[in-house]
Amino acid sequence: MARLKVIMIGDVVGEPGLGALEAALPGLIRDHEADVVVVNGENAAEGFGMTEAVLQRILAAGVDVVSSGNHVWEKREFWPVMDAEPRILRPANYPAGTQGRGWVTFEKAGVSWLVVNLQGREFMPLIDCPFTAFDGLFVHKGEAIMLVDFHAESNREKEALAYYLDGRASLVAGTHTHVQTADERILPQGTAYITDLGMTGVEGSIIGMDTKICLDRARNQVLYRMECAHGPGSVQGIVVEIDGDTGKALSIRRINGAI
Questions:
Q1: In CATH, what number is assigned to the domain containing residue 245?
Q2: What pTM was computed for the model?
Q3: Does 134 score more than 80 pLDDT?
């Protein structure tokens, strides 16, 4: 039985998150003997969106695929990069004709991989249905090991999609809230799941952002522009072991450590 290891890392937030990822990821890959690494990078450029330079830094750290979400559109100059670089994903359930791609296939560690990025609709923009979008993508799966980043606000919607994908995807991991959940588990049909990977950024912050600004926004109900917090970075995510023959998850563990 071929045992495969996957690392998925939660939303990278600004320069502190980038620095923490660059410092920690090579060791995590080595220590866990990871075959594939997926990182959500939608907040990596100063907390909002992506740039080409930031993308290259994430890939150079040892990442195979960079997923994203609603904030990937923040920097318009990055849009052409999403067309040109197959390793950066935007959610697949944006309407047809939207720039970029929502899934990618590749060969590594002797097997085929299919990484899919989807976005939720509860408490978020009402884009196309993620459940229907997955069904359309599933026809491309073949024998590939399927990994899904579900970028969503609602825990209920995340769990619902995970059960809908159970037995079809090897791994479903939620992103977007920047708060790591403690519900990692393997679902009845063999899909590894966690509601949210957490974030890679300043631990002593509010979702990676400056605490005072976030408090002022909450107390005064004024939309002051948020800025990234400063301080030591922390990497959060999961490591999952998958049976390469069946595609079923064998184990899932959280990663949560300051650098």
A1: 3.60.21.10
A2: 0.94
A3: yes
For residue 228, the enclosing domain spans: 3-258
pLDDT category of residue 259 using cuts at 50, 70 and 90? very low
> Cβ contacts of residue 38 below 8 Å, gap of 6+?
6, 7, 8, 9, 63, 64, 65, 66, 67, 115, 147, 149
- Quote the CA–CA distance of 231 and 43 in Å, as a whole number: 17
Split into its structural domains, the chain has a count of: 1
* Residue 251 CB partners (closer than 8 Å, separation 6+): 186, 192, 240, 241
Question: Any idea which residue has 């740039």 for tokens?
Answer: 51
Active site residue 71: yes
Backbone angles phi, psi at 250, to 5 degrees: -105, -30
CA distance 259 to 250: 28
pLDDT in tens, 61-88: 999 999 999 999 999 999 999 999 999 9
Catalytic site residue from 71, 151, 176, 178: 71
Number of other CB atoms surrounding residue 225 within 10 Å: 8
